[in-house]
Amino acid sequence: MNFKIVGSVIAAVAALVAQGAFAQASAPAGKARADVKAETAAASKKGELTKAGEGMPQEKAAAKSTKTRAERKAETAESVKKGDVLKAGEGMPQDKTAAKSTKARADVKAETADAAKKGQLIPPGEAPAGKK
Fold it and tell me: Per-residue pLDDT tens for 13-55?
C-alpha cells in the first residue's frame, strides 16, 4: 500500500476521534439540554433576552404616547401644509433666498471664460485641502 494513502487514512481517523472529544469537553457541566432550553424560554417570556443583532439589552419605553393615531396624522398633515416636513429623499432645508444670483447667465459665462484665459481656474480634481 502506498504510504501517502495510509497517512491520509490515519489523519482522517485522528480528526474524527478528536472532534468527538472536543464536543464532549465543551458541553456545560451539570446542565442538560432540556434545562438550558427551559431557562431560555423563561428568559424570553420575561423579555430578558437581547434581540437578534443588538449588542446590549435595550430598556423598554417607560411611557406610551398620549395622542391617538388620528391626532398624530392631523399634526403631520398640518406640518406638511406649513412646509415644516421634508419630502422623502431631501436633506436639510436650503435657504431659498441665498441661492438666487444677481448676475445674468451670459455675465457668469463671460467671467468664467476670462478666468480660464488668465489661468485662475482650479483644474478638475485638484481642489485645495478642505474644499470639495
Answer: 677 666 665 555 555 567 889 999 999 999 888 888 877 776 6
* Cell 451539570, residue located: 30
C-alpha grid cell for residue 120? Answer: 485662475
Cα distances (angstroms) measured from residue 52 to each of 38, 60, 76: 19, 16, 32
Q: What are the CA-CA distances from residue 78 to residues 58, 70, 91, 95, 126 (Å)? A: 33, 12, 20, 21, 47
With H, G, I as helix, E, B as strand and everything else as coil, classify residue 83. coil
Radius of gyration of the chain (CA): 35
Give Cα 7 to chain centroid, integer Å: 49
pTM for this one?
0.25
- List helix spans (H) across 30-129: 33-46, 69-82, 105-118
The answer to whether 50 and 56 are in contact (CB under 8 A) is yes
Higher confidence at residue 87 or residue 117?
A: 117
CA atoms of 43 and 54, how far apart (whole Å): 16
